[in-house]
Design brief:
alpha+beta, single chain, five-stranded mixed β-sheet
């Protein structure tokens, strides 16, 4: 699996505290090895992210991605549940 990052994801990631960046890096490594690991809670999303999926970074932080093709995943956003979904 090849993982790509959208500009929005990279910009938001750079603004995160270092401890949260480290947690994100660890979850992305886990995702690369085992995309449906229980800790990730990998699940499909609805509006406004139809066609995308989400994984847990922490209890409140999520990373949103979609499959460009069977071998490529693109992460497009990272943030708190409230920041991403407004709820």
């Amino acid at each position: 699996m090849h993982i790509l990052f959208a500009k929005r994801f990279r910009k938001t990631y750079q603004r995160l505290p270092k401890s949260l960046q480290k947690q994100c890096d660890e979850r992305l490594l886990l995702f690369e090895k085992e995309p449906f690991h229980q800790l990730l809670n990998n699940h499909q999303l609805h509006d406004p992210y139809v066609g995308c999926r989400s994984i847990n970074i922490t209890g409140d932080y999520r990373a949103i991605f979609y499959n460009e093709n069977p071998n490529v995943v693109r992460f497009i956003a990272i943030g708190t549940h409230h920041e991403l979904f407004g709820t």
